């Protein structure tokens, strides 16, 4: 079977051909006519991973290029033009990317459109070329600068007592419902004293939280509004109309009785005629935490109500002044320590409970080197100070250099850490090991020289063999971090190498006399 390839066809159209076959004697035969057509077009199938994106995202384009026989084409050149149908301007921005792959990307810059809450539509025109053939495809996608922000707590209409901390929690997702953990989030409350507060990302719930964002204010209506604002490094945000919730400090009213627990603003009591009269009350006044049978974390409050007969109202509510204060100070006696391999250094960790409640602390250690015991757990009373000694050990096998050790303690969401710089240095033991290893190497070189001169070095070789065995055991001691074992073997190596050096001195004299015996005879 013979295969013919027609190359250098650079024009489209129909072609015909015949095949002549001749032998060595010029006997020829010709085939019938064949024809084929030449095209210069490709079919380009373009797809996109999503149809809507936020700024700062990569848009992934996937291409499949087929020839006229539906065979895949590779190693082609792609030129893509991205045009933006910007609702704010008649100008179209262009972007050209020349690649040679079936997958390419377009990065949506923070400066790209849109600049408002309206989506911008991006049109993509793709051209594929190879060997004079070409193909085209087009598609589109939308870009938004709005993030999806939703309040989890509080909710509109939710009751929050006056002066109690308000927990604010929001979720933040992009337009494709991916949770975002790197935005700047804050909450704003005008009625709370025109106050902004930062919301921090909370990994266990994948939300942004401030457990004491505001103190619930006392307003005429009892309602107060909280707004959420978010932004990321790509200029995406919550939009022109930020999401909000409107909790309230008003509960459903109850009849007024002497020394009854009121609920703020107005109350009611039984009038002289038997009808129900409305009482107007002053603002609540704080008496003290835990007073009048209130719980330790509750504030006892009272207020005077008018007209006569309304009496005095009282209540127990959670209040920021009565909330447990949980905090502690973590210190270390030394922040920079130089420790020789095989040795220990002692530091002292001090913990002081600066809050007003008992803390159960759990310690943790993160380290790049060394052996550092974990102090475990302790219980520490308010205003109590505890000191914990910790021995840091640098193993014999540790590489010399500078390392960092992090020691921390946590209690719930409360977390403190301290960093300690450790320099692992060569110790007298490791220096001695390296020195003896070098001496042994030099002795082995001398042995080779004497042996090549024909001198009997069997005794010396025996001493070196024993020293090498002890050296191997010394290395095993280093791997095991066995300080006493290393000291023992180093002493034995020193003993054998001392004997070997004495033997070398004898061999040197012997060699000198042997090489210079004629000169010595003449001199004599």
Essential attributes:
five-stranded mixed sheet, Immunoglobulin-like, alpha+beta, seven-stranded antiparallel sheet, 524 residues
Describe this structure in words.
The chain has 524 residues and is of the alpha+beta class. It has 5 domains: 43-144, Immunoglobulin-like; 148-245, Immunoglobulin-like, CATH 2.60.40; 266-322, no CATH class; 328-425, Sandwich (Immunoglobulin-like); 428-518. Helices cover 17% and strands 42% of the residues. The chain contains 4 helices and 32 strands. The protein has a 7-stranded antiparallel β-sheet, with no helix packed on it. A hairpin with a 2-residue loop joins strand 31 and strand 32. Helix 1 (428-452) runs antiparallel to helix 2 (458-480) and helix 2 (458-480) packs antiparallel against helix 3 (483-515). Mean pLDDT is 81; it is low at 87-97, 252-266, 268-275 and 520-524.
Please count the helical segments: 4
Tally the beta strands: 32
What is the number of domains?
Answer: 5
Strand line-up in the sheet with most strands: 13-14-17-16-15-18-19
Tell me the CATH superfamily of the largest domain: Macroglobulin (MG2) domain
Mean pLDDT: 81
Helix content: 10-25%
The low-pLDDT segments are: 87-97, 252-266, 268-275, 520-524
CATH overall fold name of the largest domain: Immunoglobulin-like
Q: How much is the radius of gyration in Å?
A: 43 Å
> What's the main sheet like?
7 strands, antiparallel
Decide which structural class fits the backbone. alpha+beta
| Binned strand content | 35-45%
Sum up the overall morphology in one term: flat
């Amino acid at each position: 079977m013979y295969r013919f390839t027609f190359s250098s066809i650079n024009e489209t159209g129909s072609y015909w051909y015949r095949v002549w076959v001749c032998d060595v004697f010029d006997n020829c035969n010709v085939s019938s006519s064949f024809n084929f057509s030449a095209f210069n077009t490709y079919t380009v199938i373009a797809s996109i991973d999503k149809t809507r994106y936020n700024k700062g995202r990569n848009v992934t384009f996937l291409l499949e290029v087929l020839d006229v026989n539906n065979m895949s084409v590779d190693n082609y050149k792609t030129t893509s033009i991205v045009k933006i149908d910007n609702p704010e301007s008649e100008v179209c921005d262009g972007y050209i990317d020349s690649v040679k792959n079936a997958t390419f990307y377009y990065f949506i810059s923070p400066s790209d459109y849109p600049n408002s809450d309206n989506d911008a539509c991006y049109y993509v025109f793709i051209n594929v070329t190879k060997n004079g053939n070409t193909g085209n495809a087009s598609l589109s996608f939308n870009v938004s600068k709005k993030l999806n922000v939703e309040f989890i707590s509080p909710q509109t209409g939710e009751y929050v007592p006056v002066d109690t901390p308000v927990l604010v929690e929001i979720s933040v997702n992009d337009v494709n419902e991916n949770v975002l953990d790197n935005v700047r989030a804050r909450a704003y409350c005008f009625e709370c004293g025109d106050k902004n507060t930062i919301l921090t990302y909370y990994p266990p719930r994948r939300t942004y939280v401030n457990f004491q964002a505001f103190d619930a204010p006392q307003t005429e209506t009892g309602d107060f509004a909280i707004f959420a604002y978010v932004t990321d490094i790509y200029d995406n945000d919550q939009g022109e109309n930020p999401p909000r919730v409107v909790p309230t400090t008003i509960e459903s009213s109850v009849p007024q009785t002497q020394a009854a627990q009121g609920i703020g603003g107005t109350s009611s009591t039984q009038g002289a005629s038997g009808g129900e009269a409305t009482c107007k009350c002053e603002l609540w006044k704080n008496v003290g935490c835990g007073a009048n049978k209130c719980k330790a974390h509750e504030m006892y409050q009272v207020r005077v109500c008018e007209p006569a007969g309304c009496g005095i109202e009282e209540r127990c509510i959670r209040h920021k002044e009565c909330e447990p204060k949980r905090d502690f100070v973590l210190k270390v006696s030394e922040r920079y320590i130089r420790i020789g391999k095989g040795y220990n250094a002692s530091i002292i960790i001090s913990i002081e409970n600066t809050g007003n409640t008992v803390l159960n602390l759990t310690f943790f250690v993160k380290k790049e080197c060394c052996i550092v015991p974990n102090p475990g757990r302790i219980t520490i009373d308010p205003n109590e100070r505890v000191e914990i000694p910790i021995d840091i050990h640098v193993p014999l096998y540790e590489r010399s250099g500078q390392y960092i050790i992090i020691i921390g303690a946590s209690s719930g969401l409360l977390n403190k850490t301290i960093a300690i710089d450790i320099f692992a240095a060569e110790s007298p033991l490791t220096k001695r090991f390296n020195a003896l290893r070098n001496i042994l190497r030099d002795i082995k070189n001398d042995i080779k020289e004497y042996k090549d001169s024909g001198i009997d070095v069997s005794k010396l070789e025996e001493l070196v063999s024993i020293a090498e065995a002890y050296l191997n055991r010394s290395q095993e001691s280093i791997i095991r971090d066995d300080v006493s074992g290393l000291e023992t073997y180093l002493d034995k190596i020193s003993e054998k190498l001392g004997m070997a050096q004495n033997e070398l001195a004898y061999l040197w004299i012997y060699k000198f006399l042997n090489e210079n015996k004629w000169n010595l005879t003449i001199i004599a």
